[in-house]
Amino acid sequence: MIDLNGKVAVITGAADAQGMGAASARALARCGASVVLSDIRVAQTQDRAEELRADGYDAVAVECDVRDEAQVVALMCRAVDTYGRLDILHSQAADLSLLADPGDPAITEVTVEGWRTQFETIVLGAVLTCKHAIPHMLRRGGGSIICTTSVAGLVGEINLTVYGSAKAAVNQLVRSISSQFGDQGIRANAVAPGLILTAPALAMGEELIEKYARHSDTGLVGKPEDVGYVVAFLASGLARLITGEVIRADGGYAQHSPMLADQRDSGLMLGGA
Fold first, then answer.
1. Tens digit of pLDDT for each residue in 136-162?
2. How far apart are CA 189 and CA 236, in angstroms?
3. Which residues are catalytic?
4. pLDDT tens-digit profile of 185-228?
5. In angstroms, rounded to a whole number, what is the distance separating the alpha carbons of residues 119 and 199?
6. How far is CA 13 from the centre of its chain?
């Protein structure tokens, strides 16, 4: 059983009711952690914290723009001032505006503004939250950092140029943190989801979602809570030997031959006796 009793977690990007940040906060709270939910959208974040408190969990909401270093410093201090310690960081904040129509384009169509927006939120946001969480963790002998990335940061796509590049940068960030602070009790990992049924994914429509599922090993697409419990596991002592890793939570979407769906349709199995 995952036991996080007595632990304190900060989650960024936790405003959306159907989002992975909110699901992570709930999973961590169910496992015993006190949770500090943060987002630039303060009213929605307060709603998420109130929902957790109504269910008997210990939760507070803090407004934070992860691109603003002073706000990130204040977020971490608020967590420690409220609960006396900081053990877990889930860096989830992202700006998904570029994923809306017309979408994250090919490199020849990328704008400087779009590039900066994604990298400032996804990469700089992760850098700043990790930078200012780690000193508090070290005072308690260590901690666990989990950054949400994406399978888009692991494979080539016909779109998602900027988003995928930003997520790949965060994959490298957790490796660097693990190497730099592993001997001081800090573990750092990334969770790389595939298609998760958040609001932006649901807006794709059922037909496109089914096509995605068809190209995964399991035939499944994920729910936000699927990612939440991976985060809770990585935050716990059960994962004490796991660090510097990128854990895919994609139903097997990114690990197989791109011919998988066609092979299934034709009954053709390559290799073997």
1. 999 999 999 999 999 999 998 888 899
2. 12
3. 163
4. 999 999 999 989 888 888 888 888 888 888 888 988 899 999 99
5. 22
6. 9
Q: Over the chain, what HEC string results?
A: CCCCCCCEEEEECCCCCCCHHHHHHHHHHHCCCEEEEEECCHHHHHHHHHHHHHCCCCEEEEECCCCCHHHHHHHHHHHHHHHCCCCEEEECCCCCHHHCCCCCCCHHHCCHHHHHHHHHHHHHHHHHHHHHHHHHHHHCCCEEEEEECCHHHCCCCCCCHHHHHHHHHHHHHHHHHHHHHHHHCEEEEEEEECCECCHHHHCCCHHHHHHHHHCCCCCCCECHHHHHHHHHHHHCHHHCCCCCCEEEECCCCCCCCCCHHHHHHHCCCCCCC
Evaluate whether 57 touches 37 at the Cβ level (below 8 Å). Answer: no
CATH T-level fold of 8-266: Rossmann fold (3.40.50)
Q: Are 227 and 20 in contact (CB under 8 A)?
A: yes
- The pTM score is 0.92
AA identity, residue 201: A
Question: How far apart (Å, rounded) are the C-alpha atoms in residues 143 and 133?
Answer: 9
How would you classify the pairing of strands 246-249 and 186-193? parallel
Handedness of CA 113, 114, 115, 120 (dihedral sign): positive
Instruction: Let me know: does 67 contact 61? Beta carbons within 8 Å.
Output: no
Written as six digits, the tokens of 183 are: 């001997």
Structure tokens at 78: 């608020």
| Structural contact between residues 188 and 142, judged by C-beta atoms closer than 8 angstroms | no
* Residue whose tokens read 């969480």: 133
From residue 197, how far is each of 127, 168, 194, 240 by CA, in Å? 27, 22, 10, 29
